[in-house]
Amino acid sequence: MKSFYERIMHIDRRIIYAIIMIVVLIPLIWSLNLKTYHTEPITKIYNRLEQNHKNAKKNGVKPKPVFMCVTYGGSAKPELHPMTRSVLRHCYLRGIPVISFAFEPEAAKIAEDIMDEVAFEYGAVYGKDYACFGFKYPPLPLILGLGTNAKEALKEDVRGNKYEDIPVMHGIRTYDDIDLLFDFSASASWMTWVVYAKSRFNQDIAVGLTGVMVSQAYPYLETGQLVGILTGLKGAAEYEDYLMKMEKETEYSSMREKNLKVYLTLTQANITPTSKNYVDIAERLLRNTPEGEFEKKLKDYYDIAQNLYYKKYFAKELSARESKAKNDAEKKSLLNDILSQNQDKVKELDYLFLKDFKKKYNDLLATSISENKRAMVGMDAQAIAHVVIILFILIGNIGFFLSKWR
Amino acid sequence: MKTTIPLIIVLVGGIIGIIFQFIPHEFVQTINDEILNYFRVLSFFALPLGIVSILMVHTGKIRRKAQHWQYSIILILTIFFMIVTGFVFGTDRFDPRLANYGWNTIFMFMFQQVQIPIESTMFSLLAFYISTAAYRAFRARSKEATILLVASLIVMLGQVSVGQMIPIIGDYIPVISNWIMSNPNMAAKRGILLGVALGMLGTSLKIILGIERAYLGRA
Predict the structure, then answer these.
(1) pLDDT in tens, A54-82
(2) N or C: more exposed end of chain A, with fewer CB within 10 A?
(3) Domain ends where: A202, A222, A250?
């Protein structure tokens, strides 16, 4: 029979797996709200973007843009996505233009997704506040090209717009015209940026890396070749904490509600969020509509969405009558005729539409709020997992010393 | 001849690559940009080459009925499924938060709802392996192992907020953790990086001068 110390020295790995799984799950279900402490590599990045904003405000100009290279796939997404989101939130909040590209096709789609998603919440407009240039390969020509001729290196964005036709790109010729370059990476691509963009063009670089890669980047931080490092999930949690404080100060929550309303109403009205039409309407509503007229203007699109809902419900009746209609004018009035003949049903549809709209809106808001503190929640789980692993290491060592002592 | 021409191309290409880094003249940089464009075109051929290679390997496995050949069928079917759906239905994005707008595509659905969660799941298994590996490997068997053990415990605690919550020593843990990362860790990393850089330099020179010829298909 195995002695006590032998047993604690050789705990079955399945038991360890089960315990780790349980301790990771608990904080994800019941948030522990552990305090987030700030460290220098993250603070430096935050301060750098704040400085960019302050300088622009002082000089009465638009902040200098940042480039964002997204080079991670699904495997590193849980760790790197929250930090990408945080940096985007910071940039959109402070009006800092963001231009993204990726060295992997998978990452290009991830970058587009997150840029649009955060933009819809923060009222950023495509082409004016941000642009995506998608998959660029191989990396080296792009990295060197941005130092000599950015227009030639990037050429066309993911929506098919030419470089010169994208307002946010006006005035960006080389690295000299941008503030900071971010590389969110699960590979060694950030090293290529340091070797070529930093040493040859003196471009300031910040990186967001997975936890296991962070130790490799410290030498570059110390020499000043990196402005800062977003250190895995912990780095993302620190950044989220900074932004939560900033959003409270700027009373951002009411702005988010307005932005999400626009996003939801337009998408319900079948205006594709990635289309030029959406960009124009969203910009008009969010930027060029006086506060008092906003609800009225938005109502026009709400009515379009509601009409689509009616059309869907009365589709069969509508198509039957359309086939009998004699001219276009008659066709156009068909829906109104049907609605006036079914007023009780219309009232019910109005109620259902509003209920569905409110549900979707609440879902969007809840997702936005939870996504904005995803890394902080993740860090709760990571903290407990670390403690449990440390306990296992200590138990193993106690067994080891007991065996030696005997 | 079969050997000489590739060797000359590598020699000339390598020397040009080095020289162009040091000449900022516009004419030289224009040629450099053009060469980089060739590089871009050439790299495109890696994609069909990769597809052909993976198909050859897996059709071979299916023909031979090698171990787990059934998975090869799934792989080939999946490749073609994604190619066909991408070309036929497009790659417009789908917002999983709000379905039902007519702008979602099968391709993006597969990407966002299947591929990304699978990859994330695979990567998350690392946490479980690390846990058991740490439990088995971190034993204070010698002085060096004890130093490594203590350093790892401090860094692990310093990386999470729990470390700071320990009474009395809590405030010092992140400071010590940061010191470990930015001093001993950095010194060791620098040593490795310098070694790797010198190794790369040596290998590059050997390739350019034709001493290292493994890329020609023979040692």
Answers:
(1) 999 999 999 999 999 999 998 999 999 99
(2) N
(3) A250
ipTM attached to this prediction: 0.77
- What DSSP line would sit under A182-198, residue for residue? EEEESSTHHHHIIIIII
What is the gyration radius of the CA atoms in chain A, in angstroms?
Answer: 26
Q: Evaluate whether residue A349 is within a structural domain.
A: yes
pLDDT at B97: 52
Query: Would you call B67 an interface residue with chain A, using a CB distance cutoff of 8 Å?
Result: no
**B138 → chain A, closest CA residue:** A393
Q: Compare all CA atoms of chain B with the CA of A136 and give the residue at the minimum distance.
A: B40
pLDDT digits (tens, 9 = 90+) for A19-38: 999 999 988 888 888 888 88
Which residue in A has a C-alpha nearest to residue B146's C-alpha? A397
A64: in domain: yes
Q: Which domain holds residue A153?
A: 37-250
Are A260 and A338 within one domain?
yes
Q: Looking at chain B from residue 116 to 175, which residues have their Cβ under 8 Å from any Cβ of chain A?
A: 116-120, 122-124, 126-128, 130-132, 134-136, 138-141, 149, 152-153, 156-157, 159-162, 164-165, 174
Same-domain pairing of A293 and A275: yes
Helices then strands (H, E): number in chain A? Answer: 18, 6
Are residues A91 and A67 located together in one domain of the fold?
yes
Query: What is the C-alpha separation between A24 and A39, in angstroms, rounded?
Result: 24
